[in-house]
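Consider this pair:
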Amino acid sequence: MSRTIYELLKEKPEITGEEIRNSMDFALEQVTENLARFTHSFKRAFSEDNFYTPTENVNWTTGFWTGQIWLAWEWAVKQGKHDQAEALRRAGEIQIDSFLDRITRKQEVDHHDMGFLYSPSCVAGYKLTGNRKGREAAIRAADQLITRFHPVGEFIQAWGPMDEPENYRFIIDCLLNLPLLYWASQETGDGKYREIAEKHIHTAVANVIREDYSTWHTFFMNMDTGEPDHGATCQGYRYGSAWARGQAWGVYGTAVAYRYTGRKEYIEDFKHVTGYFLEHLPSDLVPYWDLEFGEGSGEPRDSSSASIAACGMLEMADHMEPEDRDYYRSIAAKIMKSVADNYAVKSLKESNGLVLHSTYSKKSPYNTCTPEGVDQCNIWGDYFYMEALRRLYGKWDPYW
């Protein structure tokens, strides 16, 4: 009989402190090297032949590049590398200016991804350096995000015009957009942002988690009654499968939900969703793009999902009793050992990214996505890789 993933996990080594330092040192050099090309421009969502090309501040992903700059800045300061730190800070501030301009002009902001855009860029920059433009931009982004809240159904709509039944839905990813709203309430003293965030969390968690603890990517609500309608997928293999990155958002999202609400049931939701994720990992602990697939399938991996899930485990571990805390920290350290050893870029000549073998979206006969970024670096995979390593290294104040 084949061994379970939990038996395999017992044998897996954790990433060491020295390996974390070496990986973060390489990330610092890579991000700094990239500044010449990506200070007044941004990295595209995914690489081509493992190299990113420049883009303007458009799409939902650009905040993850600025987030890498701030993580690298923190690491440079910690290591006493002041020249690099100063260059990174200047670049981060230039990019904050771009984000303020973007939200002021309302350029490609009519969707729910304000948190992905503004938390790792502008909230981070404000927390770290007191940048007031970052504060202004992030509050404006929070104001934009709450325009997508539906009182009927109590959720934040993901995409599309607000008055069309076919767009009356949310997606699991949005759980990571909500920290922007909690931050805005804390910063302004206005509870409206927090109230909307908590209503969305309750609606999302009640509906996206299936009976077997896999998750829906997207969930539709009845436009007239606000009652749950049906789950679906845009990026998973099929409607009944578990899209790997969606399940990883569920791991991190339930952890964040607990941090901000203190509701004990979210701990149990986290354990169940995380358990499903772990039970569907291959032996090297890095998932295929959909958890339906395993070893021998020939399908591409999504290394970004491994780092996202590790971040979620490390987030929740901070709020748990010692036994559970140590358990989830250990699993995260084992996952990141595999990512660092087997998926991370090792040479500046190999790629201008940090982690190979991610999948943005893989077309199947059963989903509606546009195929792109398959078996490439992607920008959030690089970001969450750095975040997970930083969390493992010691106390860290989250951008989320």
